[in-house]
Amino acid sequence: MSERVVGTERVKRGMAEMQKGGVIMDVVNAEQAKVAEAAGAVAVMALERVPSDIRKAGGVARMADPTIIEEVMNAVSIPVMAKARIGHISEAKILEAMGVDYIDESEVLTPADEEFHLLKSDYVVPFVCGCRDLGEALRRIGEGASMLRTKGEPGTGNIVEAVRHMRKVNSQIRTLQTKSDDELMTFARDLGAPYALVKEVKELGKLPVVNFAAGGVATPADAALMMSLGADGVFVGSGIFKSESPEKFARAIVRATTNYEDYTLLAELSKDLGEAMTGIEIGHLAESERMQERGW
Amino acid sequence: MVGLTKTIGVLNLQGAVREHIRALEKIGVEAVSVKKEEDFNIIDGLIIPGGESTAIGRLIREHHLEDRLRQFHQDGQAIFGTCAGLILCSTDDSHPTQDLRLGFINMDVERNGFGRQVASFETKLDFKGIDKPVEAVFIRAPYIQEVGEGVTVLAEVDGRIVAAEQNNVLVTSHHPELTDDFAVLEYFMKKVS
After folding, report:
1. What confidence tens digit (pLDDT) does each residue in A199-234 have?
2. How many angstroms separate the CA atoms of B13 and B87, rounded?
3. Which CATH number is associated with domain A9-262?
4. Cβ(A82)–Cβ(A45) below 8 Å
5. CATH number for the B7-191 domain, one of 3.90.400.10, 3.10.150.10, 3.30.470.10, 3.40.50.880?
6. How far is B4 from chain A (nearest CA, A)?
7. Which of A13, A262, B89, B91 gives B81 a disulfide partner, CB atoms 3.0 to 4.6 angstroms apart?
8. Residue A20 distance to chain B (closest CA, Å)
């Protein structure tokens, strides 16, 4: 028996692989975490406020109070994620010291650094980051992200931006497949992406890490849509606990994510759910209210 | 089954399905995804992959696959559970009663026994029946607290049991599918008839 090695790329990326086909739900207390776990969530994201409430509250959004995160960690046996501000080294180190299972370096919180993201390869804990296109995805992987998600537009209950981002990444991967090897450096320059990762994606035909959908999922059909566009799984932020009946929505979204091509079942799952969260038309958001523009 | 090629199903409800299929194909085994009752009819063995055991257990019930799984086991077909799959295959009753346990292998399990994700690790593992140490990736892994009658222990990490077998059922705490070391998978294939 040789020694144990922690924090390797395989261990960090592997953790995200185990979440595939699943739903990760935002929760703000132990009670919600238990509802999420009972509904079949594969992980929970412990927060002080869900994104739609962060929008309403305004001001600076920061890492959650550790009391809330600990309360959630003690309440469930599934993995617990937590958010740190973009570039906030100390928040990330605090979350790592607390033993959270995954850190989301998230544009939902107010960025601490407008120029530099975290060097995520420096941590034992794995990170998930948002992306709007292949360049952004590969920059985050270059820094050590072990999992990606679309940015979408958080807290809006509007799927349109998540769709845009998922389609964009996948369409750029297809374009990359058509490039000859001597075109890759220029392709990498145009994307603003590390050359080695561009080469790797061309060889693999897909991203080297899991890519979930996030930012605007409000219904079972939204979750199914993102899966059919090639998402590996789904994050639901405000969509569950801002709906009329969280238990029902949570269970229905979990089943819809697994059975995203069974339209008869999706029809059943969409019945009598009550009111979904109230949505926001993206065109009505001022430029300064768009969270997806945070980070690069 | 006709011919020499074996077909192995990977339970495709949630978790590391793609990785198991990739590993099976690498060793030249026909791999199919199993999501419905009728999918069991064409397979010679089944892998229950890693993922979240609560989520997979719930989905097994919602997909009405529990009876078919038990039948498959009773028929003496080979079953390999990794990580969450190990938990689901156990007889462990220390869990909340609503969590599914299939009871295919007589043992108690400590879920997340090695700790949270920051304690997840890889190592080289001595494995009974395999000549050289196998590459092993443990992710929020469970360990086996105690095995009952008829169960053979195959590997341990610091005195904690991480792999075992009973008749045609093989379980491991680690994830062979995340590595290019196919020795454990080949060991499982010997159980497939």
Report:
1. 999 999 999 999 999 999 999 999 999 999 999 999
2. 16
3. 3.20.20.70
4. yes
5. 3.40.50.880
6. 30
7. B89
8. 5
